[in-house]
Design a protein that fits this description.
The complex is a heterodimer. Chain A has helices at 2-10, 12-48, 78-85, 132-138, 174-183, 203-210, 217-220, 225-259, 261-269, 274-307, 321-336, 339-344, and strands at residues 54-58, 90-105, 108-116, 127-131, 145-148, 151-159, 163-164, 167-172, 193-198, 212-216. Chain A is an alpha+beta fold. In chain A, helix 1 (2-10) crosses helix 10 and helix 10 runs antiparallel to helix 11 (321-336). Chain B has one domain (2-223): P-loop containing nucleotide triphosphate hydrolases (Rossmann fold). Chain B contains 6 helices and 10 strands. In chain B, the strands form 2 sheets. Chain B has a 6-stranded mixed β-sheet with strand order 6-7-8-3-9-10. A 4-stranded antiparallel β-sheet of chain B has the order 2-1-4-5. Classes of the chains: A alpha+beta, B alpha/beta.
Amino acid sequence: MFVAWRDMLFAKGRFTLITSVVVLITLLVGFLTGLTGGLANENISAVQGLNADKIALANVAESTSEKDPTFSDSQITREQAKAWSQAEGVEESTAIGISQSRGETDGHSAALAVFGGTADSPSQDEEVVISQTVADDLKLGSGDTMTIAGEDFTVTDVISERSYAHTGVVYTTLTDWQELQQRMGDPDSYATAIAIKGDPADATSIDAEQGTVTANSLTALLSIDSFRSEVSSLLAMVAMLFAISGLVIGAFFTVWTIQRKADIAVLKALGASNGRLRADALGQALVILLLGVGLGIALTAGLGALAGAALPFVIAWYTTALPAVILVILGLVGAGSALRSITTADPLTALGSAR
Amino acid sequence: MLTLQDVTLTFPDGQSRHTAVNDVSLTAEPGTVTGITGASGSGKSSLLAVAATLITPDSGSVRIGDVETTDLSPSQTATLRRERIGIVFQQANLLPSLTALDQLLAVGELGPGSAPRGERRTRAAQLLDQVGLERAHRARPHELSGGQRQRVNIARAMMNDPEVMIVDEPTSALDHARGQEIIGLICSLTEALGTATLLVTHDLDFLPRFDQVFTMADGGLSPGTAAPPLR
């Protein structure tokens, strides 16, 4: 790194420029991943809050044009729920009702998701537990009354933020959820999904027999329509930014290496090995990447914390450390593409006057 | 000591091959300067490239001390150049980002096995003083004159205490007076440090200062000088 360090200090302008580009790309990636995480949370936190090992949905592939099961199309029957509760390896199975509706109080109205029969649901009918968003939107607290689909419920508790498909969540008993479904014109609904704890011995056979599709709790999140469409497009953007960062770093170092090919030829004539020169070049890239990505992530965390009040933004290892590591690795791969110019530099060209 | 025995080097030239060095033999003893002169295209630079292990000849033997270099791999010749050969380039070929002192220290950073950094710093400073650059240790190439750059070039070649020094037309970019100074410096360093120096020059005025002189013509090497002037 002897020459590499001095090159960086000497060509400050060039290296500041490429470091700034890395900072900006990192900032963009950091913001997109933070926003993706925030939007994802607004879609899935209520389903994650079920704390299930697996989630079973009705297999609707034969009855609809959908290829994969979705929470919005799934309708679980009493028989399916019973079969799963008796399956070998299942420690606990709970039929969960999930639907979307509107909640009202005097002068306030808001869209919300109704979750029936979960561990967070109240023990009594005609009672509800509400998430903080619903409490804020409808100005509700414990003991207040709210109306869903013309039926009155008493709020017994307000719990921390839970969302489903960008709406706050109201927890009811499964019986109340079924009644709400009847009021909304769906009298046969028993439940939407089955939350399973344990490790079913032969999930595939049960799925085939019962007409269900079982997935682990993370994979099942992709069955939330809004989550799948949002996350896939945002992650595509993040992936493209990763590719762009690798290409930009690769292009910079390719040009940089070609520009100093004559110097490399001199160093090789003086006895530098290809390995030493390659290590120097990658060391330069690593310094730039660590500096650029480090600054970019620090800025993302700072600005993200400020934006967190107005935007769904998550600052966590998977929105900071993970993209940072990926950016550094891809940047090094990009820089590695410039190494060929080092190998092909001919020390013979250092002799003579044609330099 | 540098020993070339029956060395032949050819290059592709269309459908045939051009003989750049034709059955050349010479020996450069430690502490002596061997001068090579000849017209442009006579094969001087090719001979230097072979002696510097930058290119492997088609046939013949090139020995640095007791090491036969024609059998070595590219990485082995790189190590040999790093440890036992000093090269003074025609253009100074200094790295623009490095100070004069760093140009010399960089030589010790090109591979493993060199002396501790403190020792290298002391030696680099002494060499720069020896070539008359006491006040220019921290100067970068663009802050040095052509003669000063060439002095750094010479000091850099001496940095690893080489057995053999290859010098490629060191005065071509200098006026005659400065050229005389540089040749004098190379001769005195050769004697003081005991290197076997092989030097190519166009300037016949310098030839009397060398211990032995050869003339190249059409790839062949013959003792003594040819007249009239070759340029």
